[in-house]
Specification:
mainly alpha; three-stranded antiparallel sheet; binds acetyl coenzyme *A
């Protein structure tokens, strides 16, 4: 059978190269351009990686045209309705849903690892009380590398899986301490009589002087939110973790690099920016003004929580989260002070979805559009939103790191460039420069 290839011709020399076309389970086929440099002495240029596949992956599939998101083949809608964040993290790491025994073993291992070294507490004190929570996350997660460096051999599969379990176990502990540092309350240790999400909420909100009552709806809503953020294919932060990991850097250092990337408001920082935007709009009757600003070519204002590099139809996570948002507000606090913000959000979504500018550019609400309202309803301050995203996405980051380290094509990531700087020139001593 004739193998499928693309022929690329250099019209200036007439030389050609046959590049194989590779097909995955789903999605657009890719052209393997590895021979391009060898045969034609050329690289490809793709700023922003809009058409470049950086790896082979069996973890997550997303189809932006049809709004499909699958983790290890399972649709996000089914996972969000029927699974738990802890089970989804197992699925991402191990490739299959666990049996009851496997899940019990996994949960007990996560509980065994959920404490952090006492010395790590001191790192928090180095930060100002008003430091942005994400700056603390970057630093403290990076500092974890110092506790697991000599003892972690990244070439050893058992060490790698142990590291993945450690990360998932410790992220709620670190994230909740970031919050406690900001509000000046004592750190709360994990309580192994609680489940993963209950423990996270307890470490966030309990204080030693009185019992803390967990609200089952709040636990359920946070669990769902964490599932929706657990992984999302080769986005900027995941690609950062892979690139850092490709140098065989310590995995905690690689995760810290991913957290840095997530912080930006074009990525995970958008959930924080959405709430700020809704507050700035202030009233549903002002929505038009902000939509007009977003459309104005002379104004670089954008509607936060709208648009996505890959989803050009709808973001399936946004559909789930918008429903969860209504449920949380109805179940937990029918008279919530968040209702006006919700009304602004709904008006904004309605107007934007009917507007030619947004329709033409296929700009739909993304997962961040409603997630901030849920987090706020749970009592989580705006500056902590991206920390929750980071705790959830750690599962996807470390699953991708595991996959990278096992990849038979493993090599350091090293993009090329098109050099557009000065031609070679001679150095002129300072006293001779005009
Ligand atoms: N508001 C107004 N216009 C927008 C928006 C927006 N939110 N997003 C894109 N556009 C416009 C652009 O101005 C551009 O218009 P033009 O073709 O007339 O120049 C067009 O839509 C395409 O935009 P790009 O920036 O080329 O799209 P890209 O794929 O590079 O960016 C991104 C995607 C970064 C998510 C962008 O839509 C954005 O900035 N959104 C707001 C921030 C946000 O919500 N980020 C969260 C992303 S999801 C996540 O990380 C979980």
């Amino acid at each position: 059978m004739k193998s499928e290839t693309v022929t690329i011709t250099d019209n200036s020399t007439g030389k050609t190269v046959e590049c194989p076309i590779l097909k995955g389970t789903y999605g657009a086929p890719v052209i393997d351009t590895a021979a391009l440099y060898k045969e034609l002495g050329m690289f490809t240029l793709d700023p922003g990686f809009t058409t470049t596949a950086s790896c082979r992956s069996a973890i997550t599939y997303l189809d932006g045209e049809h709004g499909i998101l699958l983790h290890r083949g399972y649709p996000i809608e089914q996972l969000a309705e029927q699974s738990s964040f802890l089970e989804v993290s197992y699925l991402l790491l191990h490739g299959e849903l666990p049996t009851a025994d496997e899940f019990a073993d996994y949960e007990s291992q996560i509980k065994r690892y959920n404490n952090v070294h006492e010395h790590l507490m001191r790192f928090f004190n180095g930060y100002r009380y008003d430091a942005h929570p994400m700056s603390i996350m970057v630093g403290v997660t990076g500092a974890m590398a110092s506790y697991y460096h000599e003892t972690v051999d990244v070439k050893n599969p058992e060490h790698r899986m142990q590291t993945a379990h450690r990360l998932i176990a410790k992220m709620p502990n670190i994230g909740s301490k970031v919050y406690k540092h900001g509000v000046g309350e004592p750190f709360i240790y994990p309580d192994n009589s609680l489940g993963y999400i209950e423990n996270l909420m307890n470490m966030m909100f309990a204080i030693p002087s009185e019992p803390y009552e967990l609200h089952p709806q709040a636990v359920q809503a946070l669990d769902k939110l964490m599932i929706l953020h657990a992984d999302h294919e080769q986005n900027a932060s995941t690609s950062t973790v892979r690139l850092s990991g490709s140098s065989e850097a310590n995995p905690f250092a690689a995760i810290s690099a991913g957290i840095s990337t997530l912080w930006g408001k074009a990525h995970g920082g958008a959930n924080e920016a959405v709430l700020e935007m809704l507050e700035e709009i202030g009233d549903p009757k002002n929505v038009h003004k902000f939509v007009d600003r977003a459309k104005d070519k002379n104004d670089n204002y954008r509607l936060m929580g709208f648009g996505h590099r890959v989803y050009k139809n709808f973001d399936p996570r946004a559909t789930i989260i918008s429903k969860a948002c209504h449920e949380v507000l109805d179940d937990m606090d029918p008279n919530s002070e968040l209702r006006p913000l919700m009304e602004i959000a709904m008006e904004l979504e309605k107007i934007a979805l009917e507007d030619e500018y947004f329709i033409e550019r296929k700009l739909y609400p993304n997962v961040d559009f409603y997630s901030g309202i849920i987090l706020r309803a749970l009592g989580i301050p705006t500056s902590m939103f991206t920390v929750f995203f980071a705790m959830a996405r750690s599962a996807g980051w470390i699953a991708n790191w595991l996959e990278l380290m096992e990849d038979p094509d493993f090599r350091i990531g090293r993009p090329r460039q098109l050099y557009i700087g000065s031609e070679k020139r001679d150095y002129i001593p300072l006293d001779k420069r005009g």
